[in-house]
Amino acid sequence: ATIGTETAGSILSPSSLNSLVGLKPTVGLLSRQGIVPISSTLDTPGPMTGNVADNAILLDGLMGYDSTDTRSIKEVSLPILTDNLADDSLKGKRFGIYSALLEISAYAAAIQQLKVQGAEIISLDTVSVPLPGYLSLLNHDMKKDLATYLQKTASPKVAAKSIRQIMDFNLTQPNTLAPYGQALFEGIEADTLTGQAFEEMKARLLLAADQFFTRPQNQHQIDFFLSVNNLHAAYAALAFRPCLTIPIQAKSDGEPQALTIIGRSWQEEALLRAGFQIEKVAGSRILPSSYP
Predict the structure, then answer these.
(1) Residue pair 9/234 in contact by the 8 Å Cβ criterion
(2) At a CB cut-off of 8 Å and minimum separation 6, what does 239 contact?
(3) Cα–Cα nearest to 21, from 47, 60, 44, 43
(4) What residue ranges of the chain have pLDDT lower than 50?
(5) What is the pLDDT of residue 174?
(6) Buried b (16+ CB within 10 A) or exposed e, 74-88
(7) What is residue 17's three-state secondary structure?
(8) Strand order in 243-248's β-sheet?
(9) Nearest-angstrom CA–CA distance, 247 and 228
(10) DSSP class of residue 34?
């Protein structure tokens, strides 16, 4: 088991490609204290494990209110998943799937396994919608949040306390500290969208992501959405929805891949319980070759 951190994909992607169960929880469920920030809007830690039960146990141990984190919430309890699993079932659960992804054989096979277990499948034609301003949100947040983090957390010996100062420092060590260049930092510095214009853009962006899930969910009474790997990581992040990766059949070249379950905000228990059942019938984890 390990603990990852995600803004939009950094738990889901490595979990998918390493045949792991990875949970990106609702922002605010877990403390973010000490995490080097990209976006105070979207950042969260989350557990990465070999199976769903271990994921739930680790999540249970990680939860707790943090008064230093403005997004942290009180009075959240999540029973350990391994309690009373005998009564759980996929029968009657309604899953929204993306028809364009059915050409991925492992995705189609996993959905067929869910049907056998009595799950109801709702096919959706819309796989994506525009997310205008997404990069500006990350730019604006990181410019502010990283500077705050360095000022509060870094040793006094660390002279660089802003994106600009980090860039200037990197120029003195270009082959050592910035081997991939500074294009992302340069983009952050060049993004001048601020004030009311930024707040309006952010509101439109979050609404677009929320409606991407909410509209079909309300129309078809969908309990969960099914994606692959990190394909819908940005949408789920901006809609503040938890995601869980379940390893499924690998690609023909042996590369692992995952079925990604997207749930409702603050419904991690329901997500994990559904994931446990899906893992039993469609899971196909690849153990590391050196695993004892």
Answers:
(1) yes
(2) 206, 209, 210, 212, 213, 214, 265
(3) 47
(4) none
(5) 66
(6) eebeeeebeeeeeee
(7) helix
(8) 2-6, 44-49, 21-24, 243-248, 257-262, 224-228, 94-98, 120-124
(9) 10
(10) T
Q: Residues 89, 58, 80, CA angle at the centre, nearest 5°?
A: 40
Give 239's Cβ-side CA count (13 Å radius): 24
Q: Give tens-digit pLDDT for 123-162.
A: 999 999 999 999 999 999 999 999 999 999 999 999 999 9
- Tokens coding 161: 């306390």
Q: 49, 55 in Cβ contact below 8 A? A: yes
Label each residue of 47-102 as H, E or C. EEECCHHHHHHHHHHHCCCCCCCCCCCCCCCCCCCCCCHHHCCCCCCEEEEEHHHH
Angle at 261 between CA 257 and CA 264, to 5 degrees: 155
Q: What's the pLDDT at 34?
A: 92
Listed residue (9, 235, 225, 25) closest to 111, CA to CA: 225
Do 259 and 52 contact (CB within 8 A), yes or no? no
| CA atoms of 229 and 185, how far apart (whole Å) | 27
For position 78, what pLDDT does the model report? 60
Task: Give the angle subtended at the CA of 55 by the CAs of 54 and 60, to the nearest 5°.
Answer: 95
Provide the residue type at 69 as one letter: D
Asked whether 264 and 94 are in contact (CB, 8 A), the reply is: no
DSSP state of 202: H
Residue 56 and residue 22 in contact, taking contact as beta carbons nearer than 8 Å: no
Structural tokens at position 31: 């403390």
